[in-house]
Write a structure and sequence with these properties.
CATH architecture of the largest domain: Sandwich
Strand order of the largest sheet: 2-1-3
Number of domains: 2
Order of helices and strands: EEEEEEEEE
Largest sheet: 3 strands, antiparallel
Strand content: 35-45%
Bound molecules: calcium ion
CATH superfamily of the largest domain: Crystallins
Number of strands: 9
Structural class: mainly beta
Radius of gyration: 15 Å
């Protein structure tokens, strides 16, 4: 794949590997020549621009490629059991004013931590798939 035409109110993130992993490129408009990832795209996540993450929040998704159920989190959360999402999260999107998110494998901001500064399509790439139990949000 070398070019893309987007429908109305659509944006995409294209990925080098399957299940939204590997190098990625976010596109919000038609691209007649995708030079940076020419013939290197294996999977695509499609979003509606009418439905965006709240500015200071993040969306966690049940599955890779931003699929399944999702929860919106807008402040530090010490125990995902409280939002019925413990050991479930597999991908994340960040609101426009979120600088970084630290996700921990255990409750109360303990265990292994992973920092995200942009959308991540599959936590298998960061080794914490289905392990997230708490998180901290830092705004810009
Ligand atoms: Ca999952
Ligand atoms: Ca956990």
């Amino acid at each position: 794949m070398s070019s893309i035409k987007l429908g109305q109110n659509t944006s995409v993130i294209v990925y080098e590997n399957d299940k939204c992993t590997g190098s990625s490129l976010a596109l919000t408009s038609d691209a007649s020549s995708i030079t940076t990832m020419n013939d290197a795209i294996t999977s695509v996540a499609i979003f509606s621009t009418l439905e965006t993450v709240s500015t200071n929040c993040v969306w966690l998704y049940e599955h890779c490629c931003f699929g399944g159920s999702k929860v919106e989190i807008c402040s530090d959360t010490a125990d995902f059991s409280s939002i019925n999402f413990n050991d479930v999260a597999s991908s994340i999107r960040l609101g426009s004013n979120v600088s970084s998110v630290i996700i921990y494998t255990n409750t109360n901001y303990s265990g292994t931590s992973n920092t995200y500064t942009e959308a991540n399509g599959c936590f298998t790439t960061t080794g914490n798939n289905d392990q997230a139990s708490s998180l901290r949000i830092t705004l810009k």
